[in-house]
Amino acid sequence: MELARIAFQEIQENYTYSLQYSTTEGNVELRRAFLEFLRKDGIKAELEEIVITTASQQGLDLVAKTFLDPGDVVYIELPSYLGAIQAFRAFEAELVGITLEEDGMDLERLREQIQKGRAQGKNPKLIYVIPDFQNPAGICWSEEKRAELLKIAKEEDLLVVEDAPYRALRFAGEEVPSLKAMDREGRVVFLFTLSKILAPGLRLAALVGAEEIVNKVVAVKQATDLCTPALTQALALRFLREHDFEAHIERLRSCYREKRNAMIAALERYMPEGVLWTRPEGGLFLWVTLPPGLDTEKMLPKALERKVAYVSGSPFFVDGTGHNTMRLSFAIATLEQIDEGIRRLAEVIKEELAALPSSVSA
Amino acid sequence: MELARIAFQEIQENYTYSLQYSTTEGNVELRRAFLEFLRKDGIKAELEEIVITTASQQGLDLVAKTFLDPGDVVYIELPSYLGAIQAFRAFEAELVGITLEEDGMDLERLREQIQKGRAQGKNPKLIYVIPDFQNPAGICWSEEKRAELLKIAKEEDLLVVEDAPYRALRFAGEEVPSLKAMDREGRVVFLFTLSKILAPGLRLAALVGAEEIVNKVVAVKQATDLCTPALTQALALRFLREHDFEAHIERLRSCYREKRNAMIAALERYMPEGVLWTRPEGGLFLWVTLPPGLDTEKMLPKALERKVAYVSGSPFFVDGTGHNTMRLSFAIATLEQIDEGIRRLAEVIKEELAALPSSVSA
After folding, report:
1. What is the pLDDT of residue A362?
2. B90: nearest CB among A223, A230, A232
3. Can you identify the CATH homologous superfamily of domain B247-355?
């Protein structure tokens, strides 16, 4: 493992730095390296507009801690990322879920909900989205919807948090610009992470936003953990400098493309009628919707008996729906395991369908 | 540097673990190693009673996030650690400072303040203390005051946060048991860290408390950062396993003892009458009180001109006092630098004293 040699050299040559306190903003050279990477993706930001975080989960926690007062309203995709739901709930925000369509949020519904909230005397504060290969749904927002979301955010003076852990992992389809790249007003907070493209164990990510926003977040971060570990920052920096990071990501993309294709092929081969799934153009997840009446949470023990696992969809919905949905990941399994796993899962689903009262399955 | 070899081996042999997600509670073996270390110090705790944190600053943040509602009262030493003040203020706690005497807080005053707070309809919630070689004051609480503090906490049903970053660094005097070791009711939350005894750059610490408390903190930590980096945890564990950690700490103790002695000798040699200082039995800091009328914040630029630095005392006081105090650290400077630094600092103080109006200096 290349990182082993890097860790040895870094500590050997640079321990007075790597084993000491870092600044709250994070390693300057690593921030520069991140900015350069993001610049290729159309995001222009300066050193004062980025802060290193201990993975994106801390970015979410810091955004919540910095901007949310109890009762503030956060608009969130339905379904959305569990960790974000938890981070916002920890600061007692009200979460309003907006249905996700194939090309992004139902923006008419978003407008309605914002206005309804204001009419009720509530305080709409931010919109949280994962526009690229969403976790859990795997979908990618269209450019039109992105532009429209920014327009709504401007009209309603809301902050937008763009969580982009899978953005670099596009393996099919056309590139779509990030909200941050389209943002002309400094109202988008962009969360970038190495967890899916280098190693989650490093817990390294960054928050990119307007200088005023970043300054506030840095002050809050200081009281939260003083600084992110200098060592992991230094290791990541060495890796980015000494390796062809673009080629590394290209390898990841082609690996995940192959796995996604295998999973879709298996779904087509084995699944009974009435089961639907997304065809993600990137990321790690595929979202499956079963016929109404099936409950993926109740079904899970039966799947586990046959040694196949998935994540039940319901916890991703802040409104308590989604009981007939599930998230499948094609990240870790081999091609053979993917085929066999989907075959077993299809068997379980067929059995469940057969056991449904005919009034419901009709 | 020994950690370089350890990092190489760890990643080489164990990267599927070290570069992946960890559990929110932290590496089981590292938690066991911490517990074993603490057991020698009289703290008996089980695996369910410890959670790894990203340095003690995160421990403070998690305690605040878990237990403090806006307006809750936190009792804190006067002076106290800046990072704790910031962590509690971030959750809108009211901080009430209690004067620190040579053997710990003025506990009569603490009782009065708690009763006064209750009479005013406030919600006293926790007491935050650094009983060993306090930052910034360098003093160590007596066993009597520790016992009395626990008694007050029990009577008033308050949580006690014991921050113990310097506890292992005793280099003189008699051992005094920690509050946690004396705690019979599970009301003490103990913060342990590797920052002062291994390397601050690892950002590794632990929070030890009753299982019920730890469970709450773990749930909050999950929404805060999911987990602390697996890599740094694995490195620390290897270091603890492969080295004589007690001998390592003994070397640190004797090094700091020598430096403390050099600083006290230099203070005795150079300081004018009216300047007072502590004689810490451990830790890294020495606390200096100048004659009234002097302001260490205003004096700092003059000291910096002569290339000697200190930390002004006032920010450590939540009540706005302490303008004539300063914190000196003997951690990093060499013995020669300590002597020369104190000599220069004494010159600056003498000049400031000479410039005082006689009415004030009398």
Report:
1. 41
2. A223
3. Aspartate Aminotransferase, domain 1 (3.90.1150.10)
